[in-house]
Amino acid sequence: MKLQTQIPLQKETKNPINYHSKMVLLGSCFSENIGAKFDYFKFQNLQNPFGIFFHPKAIEKFIQQVISKKVFSENDIFFENERWHCFDAHSSLSSSNKEILLSNLNLEIESTNLALKNATHCFITLGTSWIYRNIETNEIVANCHKIPQKNFTKELLSVAEISASLQNIIAQIQSINPTITIIFTVSPVRHLKDGFVENTQSKAHLIAGIHSVLKGKNGCYFPSYEIMMDELRDYRFYAEDMIHPSKIAIDYIWKKLVTTWFSEDSIPIMNEVDSIQKAMLHRPFHENSEQHRAFLKQVNSKIAEIQKQFTSIQF
Questions:
Q1: CATH code at 64?
Q2: Tens of pLDDT along 58-107?
Q3: Per-residue pLDDT at 216
Q4: Domain region containing 315
Q5: Listed residues 245, 263, 281: the one ending a domain
Q6: Domain identity same for 257 and 111
Q7: How far apart are the first and last CA of the chain?
Q8: 89 and 129 share a domain?
Q9: Same structural domain for residues 132 and 198?
Q10: Which of the residues 137, 171, 232, 289 has an alpha carbon 20 to 30 A from that of 113?
Q11: Residues in contact with 50: Cβ distance below 8 Å, sequence separation at least 6, in sequence order
Q12: Which residues 6+ apart lie within 8 Å of 297 measured at CB?
């Protein structure tokens, strides 16, 4: 008896991910869910240097700033609710000290420029087609920082606008790294604050925009949204808010990504890393016992062995 419809997936053969790969992940909070998996298994990756980006225009502007090595100044930040913010970055970078904010913004621009030049893969996860435009400047913002709604107009990006934005993102990244593999995905997180129908329209625009660009073979698509909506169409796969994927769902989608995109020789290394990670979480009843000392010696021996093969792996 078949109790689930399966999304057909093809194994990547041209540029599979292994422990020599270097990833850059940009986009919605789902990027951070997958990024946490890359961290756990000790892959080389950089995640959302300017924090979470929800829509393609925010990612496009960030990439332009990275490629041009923009230097942020006081003209690019503002003070509100006792903190300094930047409309181009997430509130996770905001600070009570403007010098710290500016320093962090400029450091992230430099580090992302270097990371993109050396990256083998770039994951771009899109969350919504809805954008907010600052009425005063007429600029699209990445984050509103809880500024009153009256200061912004809300717009829905058309499929054509999304396609153009994605083409610009691809062209800019390839200008400094022609061999990079760019993988697009749509976040399965529903933006219900926009409305149920509005969220569906938003996701549809993103999916249509991505696939219109992929017709030119300028990137790849991983169906995380489709897996969540079709294979995991049950509320037991959602977190308590009934909106975000649960840990089980994230693990499931991650395994699908591994099956599709990871090289076969990386799997034994991942299993070994997993074993070490679980061992490091072990809490002994008697720390000074001979048995625990032998256990620690065995774990340290495993770490030393894996670090001989991959110096980038650090525990």
A1: 3.40.50.1110
A2: 999 999 999 999 999 999 999 999 999 999 999 999 999 999 999 999 99
A3: 66
A4: 265-315
A5: 263
A6: yes
A7: 44
A8: yes
A9: yes
A10: 137
A11: 62, 88, 89, 90, 93, 105, 108, 142
A12: none
pLDDT band at residue 301, thresholds of 50, 70 and 90? very high
Extract the tokens encoding 232.
């995991």
Residue 142: what are its φ and ψ, rounded to 5°? Answer: -80, -30
Give the separation between CA 137 and CA 150, rounded to whole angstroms: 14
Q: Do 299 and 221 sit in the same domain of this protein?
A: no
Rounded to the nearest integer, the mean pLDDT of the chain is 95
CB 170 within 8 A of CB 64: no
Answer yes or no: do 227 and 303 share one domain: no
> What mean pLDDT do residues 20-43 have?
96
Q: Is residue 15 part of a domain?
A: no
Place of tokens 């913010």: 85
- Which tokens is 315 given? 């525990």
Residue 12 belongs to a domain: no
Flag whether 16 is in a domain.
no
Structure tokens at 209: 């925009």
Helices (H), the chain: 29-40, 56-68, 98-118, 159-176, 196-214, 224-226, 247-261, 266-280, 290-309
| Percent of the chain clearing pLDDT 70 (strictly above) | 100
The neighbouring-strand residues paired with 262 are 17
Q: Sheet containing 152-156: which strands, arranged edge to edge?
A: 140-141, 130-134, 152-156
Six-digit token string for 12? 């990547």
Q: How far apart are CA 210 and CA 67, in angstroms?
A: 22
* Residue 4 in domain: no
Tens digits of residue pLDDT in 197-223: 999 999 999 999 999 999 867 789 999
Q: Of all residues in the chain, what percent carry a pLDDT higher than 90?
A: 90
User: How far is the C-alpha of 254 from the C-alpha of 128, rounded, in Å?
Assistant: 21
What are residue 25's DSSP bridge partners?
Answer: 47, 123
Of 116, 108, 106, 222, which Cα lies nearest the Cα of 173?
Answer: 116
Are residues 185 and 269 both part of a single domain? no
What does DSSP say about strands 22-27 and 121-126: parallel, antiparallel, or unpaired?
parallel
